[in-house]
Amino acid sequence: MKPVIALVGRPNVGKSTLFNRLTKTRDAIVADFAGLTRDRHYGNGKQGKHEYIVIDTGGFEPDASSGIYKEMAKQTRQAVAEADVVVFVVDARGGVSAQDYDIGKYLRKLGKPCLVIANKAEGMKDGAQLSEFFELGLGEVFPVSAAHGQGIRSLVDMALALLNWTVPEDAAEEADPAVIKLAVAGRPNVGKSTLINTWLGEERLVAFDMPGTTRDAISVPFERNGQRFELIDTAGLRRKGKVFEAIEKFSVVKTLQAIESASVVLLLIDAIQGVTDQDAHIAGYILESGRAVVVAINKWDAVDEYQRELVKRSIETRLGFLKFAALHMISAHKRQGLGPVWDSIAQAHRSANCKMPTPVLTRLLLEAVQFQTPKKTGVYRPKLRYAHQGGMNPPIIVVHGNSLEHVTEAYKRFLEGRFRKEFDLVGTPLKIQMKSSE
Ligand code: GDP
Ligand code: GDP
Q1: So what's the pLDDT on residue 212?
Q2: What family does the database annotate (predicted)?
Q3: Exposed, middle or buried by CB within 10 Å (0-12, 13-18, 19+), for 348?
Q4: Residue 394: is the preceding peptide bond cis (ω within 30°)?
Q5: Residue 364 is inside which H or E element, if any?
Q6: What residues have CB less than 8 Å from 21, skipping those under 6 apart?
Q7: Is-contact 83 4, C-beta < 8 A?
Q8: What is the pTM of this model?
Q9: 7, 105, 211, 219: which one has the fewest Cβ atoms less than 10 Å from its Cβ?
């Protein structure tokens, strides 16, 4: 599991600027997908080998008793509760405010590992002006400039050092590729537990071990038609005896972690509600994680033709960036449409782990170029020479040649379509990288 870093502080100290710095290092597979919501407060970050999750919080008033501030305080407390380390951001230029004292007091009581960061410290003489922040009683204060990218690297180092965090030795690769690790993700009430219980009640599905219910984490190995699966811990669910139960608390961090440890994610949407902001956010995390995905709209039994049209349209407009995924209309409750979901899960898994030999890729590439030559921009005409597979899960195709930086997005999409068709890739993101030689 990746460590979770929460950013806390009063409004305007630079938390969102810092959030963007901390999360943008990640190789952005999302860049090409239009319509992906960007106003998220949870993000993945990476520094060297170290990966982490960052939570941004709104401005924090620990004692707020009403209105929007109360809601923000609630969300901040939840973020802090989920975090492994708290980064308390103050304004190096503004000095200590009453609000900072309140937040400091709250964090001292909380007793979590905490790092105080004085932002906007670009061009300031080391230390001198920061001494007043020691009054917050949280130890040393470190100057950074989120806007100018100064001190960010050591901030991450220090935050992870507070946790004695080390990268688990080859933990990622030990997974058995024959086992599909499946996460059912979705907002509360979309029908996750209903679906899982319906599955587990199926005759064709053999669940192996349903050990005690003491632990919060869920992991049920099972087999269906000869394919082995592992159902992994899903946010907002708890096992009670032989059935799963929805619990009230929904945790974005748990959802993120479930997505990360899955090999295929089944995203459930509620047909009655249509696609909500939260659905779009979860879909965004799935895309960003590079995981294979299948989308199922549940409660299809409960909506009329008119609503069905609306839902289909909201899928197109709001989840357009998951176009590569198979889409199913199901009823977990009435056990309708579930068979094809299994087929799509297997297909998504197969697609994500597809092996694409260099000769085949190169032949396809050259055929594509012959069919449609990339456009000339200015004096440059990109020359695509050969392609090889640069990675799996999600598959990456690296195209080699000259002047490839002038290949348009539209042309990359054209290539993607050809590759997808040839290798029958459904349900996995596919990344195409251009590598120009000198
Ligand atoms: P938040 O409300 O805490 O999320 O703060 P924002 O990230 O929205 O930043 C508030 C303002 O501070 C914006 O105008 C930023 O451009 C500015 N800001 C953020 N980081 C820095 C910094 O390192 N130096 C300076 N001078 N300004 C910054
Ligand atoms: P979770 O929070 O995602 O685990 O959602 P639950 O499985 O607890 O389901 C929430 C509510 O939706 C419950 O009242 C279910 O009975 C209902 N529900 C689940 N699946 C379906 C379905 O396919 N059709 C209808 N009409 N209701 C459903």
Answers
A1: 45
A2: Belongs to the TRAFAC class TrmE-Era-EngA-EngB-Septin-like GTPase superfamily. EngA (Der) GTPase family.
A3: buried
A4: yes
A5: helix 358-371
A6: 146, 149, 152
A7: yes
A8: 0.82
A9: 211
Q: Tell me phi and psi for residue 245, to 5 degrees.
A: -125, 140
Phi–psi pair at 222, nearest 5 degrees: -155, 170
Cβ of 147 less than 6 Å from ligand 1? yes
How many angstroms separate the CA atoms of 194 and 311, rounded?
21
Q: From the CB of 333, is ligand 2 less than 6 Å away?
A: yes
Q: Considering only CA atoms, which residue is closest to atom 25 of ligand 1? A: 120
Round to whole Å and give the CA distance between 263 and 2: 16
pLDDT < 70 positions in the chain: 25-40, 58-69, 71-72, 126-128, 165-175, 207-218, 233, 235-243, 246-249, 438
- Asked if residue 298 belongs to a known ligand binding site, the reply is yes
Give φ, ψ of 407 to 5 degrees.
-70, 130
Return the axis-axis angle of helices 358-371 and 409-423, rounded to nearest 10°. Answer: 130
Tokens of 43: 């993000």
pLDDT of residue 124: 83
In our burial notation (b when 16+ CB lie closer than 10 A, e otherwise), range 395-407 reads bbbbbbbebbebb
Q: Which of 173, 141, 145, 133 is nearest to 158 (CA)?
A: 141
CB 141 within 8 A of CB 117: yes
Q: Is the CB of 122 under 6 A from ligand 1?
A: yes
13 is in an annotated binding site: yes
Which ligand neighbours the alpha carbon of 148 most closely? 1
The answer, yes or no, to whether any atom of ligand 2 lies below 6 A from the CB of 235, is no
Count of all residues that appear for the chain in the document: 438
* pLDDT at position 39: 56
Are 200 and 229 spatial neighbours (Cβ–Cβ below 8 Å)? no
From residue 291, how far is each of 57, 233, 367, 397, 402 by CA, in Å? 26, 16, 29, 16, 31
Q: How far is CA 93 from the centre of its chain?
A: 34
Distance CA 167, CA 224 (A): 34
Question: Which residue type sits at 66?
Answer: S
Q: If residue 233 lies in a helix (H) or strand (E), which one and from where to where?
A: none
Instruction: List, in sequence order, the alpha helices (H) in 252-357.
Output: 252-261, 277-289, 305-318, 338-352
